[in-house]
Design goal:
Layout lengths: L3 H19 L9 H17 L18
Amino acid sequence: MDLQKYINHLFKSIKNKLSEWLSLKEGETILTEDVYRFLHSVKGTSGTLQPANFELLPAKSIRLSA
């Protein structure tokens, strides 16, 4: 099974969420529940995608910059 499209989607989701959080205005906060949900989702998705495959990815596949 080719997992590359799912791996790409995972990294895109991570990038989008971190970009959203890093662009918050002063005084805006991130709810603890949102951080927990995000980390839980990343952990669950990573487990499904077999983390052993991550070390085989070329560096450009995991680059978080646009």
